[in-house]
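Schema walk-through. Below, the input block comes first and the output block second. Nothing else is stored per chain. Lengths vary across the set, and this one has 358 residues.
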Amino acid sequence: MSKEIREEDLIVKTTFETNLNNLDVSKVLYGFQGLDPGSDKLPEGVHYVRRKSKNVKEILYRLIDNPYRYDGKDEKHCNDLGRFIGIKGYDYSQPPPVIEFIPNGIRDKGKGKKYFYLCYSGAQRSEALLDQNIDKWIYDEYRYDSDKARQWHIAGLNGSHPPALVSSPMDAINHSVRLINEEKLDVGELEKFIEIKYPSLSDQDGIISKIKKQYEHRDEAILTSKDVKTEMNKQGLGVGGKVINGYANWACKEGYEDRRAIQSLLKYWKDGIKSIIYLYVNGSTSKESLSEKRWKTVDAWSDIESALVLVFEEWKKTGEIVFPWDIKGFISQRNKEGETGILTHDQIEPRKLLEKNA
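--- output ---
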């Protein structure tokens, strides 16, 4: 039986520093910024330099003509943020703004002043600091091997933080089109780019479709899941396991071969229905042509089939079905009840008891 949840359990605990002349970089709770989901390494060409307290006025904040922000400065957001900082101080749980050292400097056209540090992410917050006459703040400094690495990294920062002033759909569209035109993003990588770099945005299919319309002259089509479903329906076929003429129909995008294979096996086991698979890929890149990608998906299916055949061959030899995995237990998740380490099946509520309580 789970314990009662109290209001204080829902309060996110963080540390605020009200004395902004006494900022301590070691107290920042936030780790590396811009990691791809599931990764503990920064993207290729991105290098973390240091985390440091720095004078706010030594940095150029690009709020107008910012390639990562379509709408530019949000006056209300800056004002609200400034008032919050003035009352609460520095929030050590938040990601510091990202800056880069520019060896030759960069001149601000408006002020005529030359700066050696440029702020890419967190510019709205920095504008709020200037409005509040705050001198010091903590920044994360990064170095980039190329402009492509820089733009991919910053897009991921602006597109994935919790919704506050997260990137807008137009930010994603405008920036992606710019990268494609500058040949820093292949059209075939677009879906993966939006999925990884802008996970906080809803209707990613709609965003991709709007970008796609600008490249309809290309020989290759950028297909979203909605596009595939529409096309399959036109052909009198189906997706998502829809049964037509006695077969379950599935559309399989590159990279999802294992998921579709398991779904097909489960369909056969539960309903006795075999499946038909239709493949599609994201599109060509500078490293792989469309045809190479298509054959790569075929090879992925062959690998899955070979793995299943190996299980059957071992069954023939030994007379025993042995799968190449072993379920060891459960990772503890109930902190309030003192769960720690790995739990065995005997340490969780019995299945029959759960059915009885249902």
